[in-house]
Design a protein that fits this description.
The protein is built from 11 helices and 7 strands. It is an alpha/beta fold and 252 residues long. Strands 3-2-1-4-5-7-6 form a 7-stranded mixed sheet, sandwiched between helices.
């Protein structure tokens, strides 16, 4: 199985994981993003949405329902092939090989851009964010999410993928586990500055996802209930940098 196939298999598994915490972390993020898309959805005959890095395609059905035209872009053709079945199913969906740090998409050509769990894979995320601002027409919407630099999950991942440790992690989870490939983890302050410098006006922010190493793996639903309670206590406090994911809805 190719590296791309393994990654897509992993992304599909996350939403049905045997591990209650892992499943919750990804399903709650998915649900927040879909809700944000529904709130931001444009109605009209000329509307276009762009998704940067569609992964397993979990958001594309929603986008194709909300927009007259949807363009899904990725720098690697092989990743797009895994969502080819969706373009065959939805005639308003186009797949396009494109580099978001130097995009071929026209300026002011999109009403909405979705970029979720992508910028952490891009070394020069500032260039990517500037390009997304260029592609959006004035008043267009960016919906973006990315992990927080100092969240326990990201810190634990640095240990989990060490030789000898990863085999134990895979034994515990009994499902696909791959290195995150996160090369550009940012704090909320760093993301805010990049958005502001690109010309975005942040309309909404959110943070979610508590992960407690070992407790999450061994504590089952008891661990999940405690993590959910802890998330509610950390949200909108000085300690919310420990939550896993940061979300932004911003206007161009």
């Amino acid at each position: 199985m190719s590296a791309e196939s393994k990654l897509v298999e992993l992304q599909q598994t996350l939403y049905t994981s045997r591990n209650a915490t892992r499943r919750w972390l990804h399903c709650s993020r998915r649900d927040w993003i879909i809700d944000a898309l529904l709130r931001a959805g444009f109605a009209g005959p000329t509307t276009r949405a762009v998704e940067v890095g569609p992964g397993s395609g979990v958001y594309l059905p929603t986008l194709t329902q909300l927009y007259r035209e949807v363009v899904a872009i990725d720098i690697e053709k092989d990743y797009l092939e895994h969502v080819r079945y969706l373009s065959n199913k939805h005639d308003n969906l186009t797949l396009m090989v494109d580099d978001i740090t130097a995009s071929r998409l026209p300026s002011a050509s999109a009403d909405l851009i979705l970029c979720t769990e992508v910028v952490e894979h891009i070394g020069n995320s500032a260039s990517a964010i500037r390009e997304m601002r260029r592609i959006l027409h004035p008043g267009g919407v960016l919906v973006m999410s990315t992990p927080q630099r100092y969240s326990p999950l990201e810190l634990a991942a640095k240990i989990a993928f060490l030789p000898g440790v990863i085999e134990l992690v895979r034994l515990i989870y009994r499902e696909p586990i791959l290195a995150t490939g996160h090369i550009n983890l940012m704090t909320a302050g760093q993301v805010r500055r990049q958005l502001a410098r690109a010309g975005f006006q942040i309309q909404q922010t959110h943070k979610s996802g508590t992960y407690l190493p070992l407790f999450a793996e061994l504590g089952g639903h008891t661990a999940l209930r405690f993590e959910q309670w802890l998330e509610s206590k950390l949200c909108n406090t000085a300690l919310d940098g420990f939550l896993w994911t940061q979300y932004y809805v911003a206007l161009a």
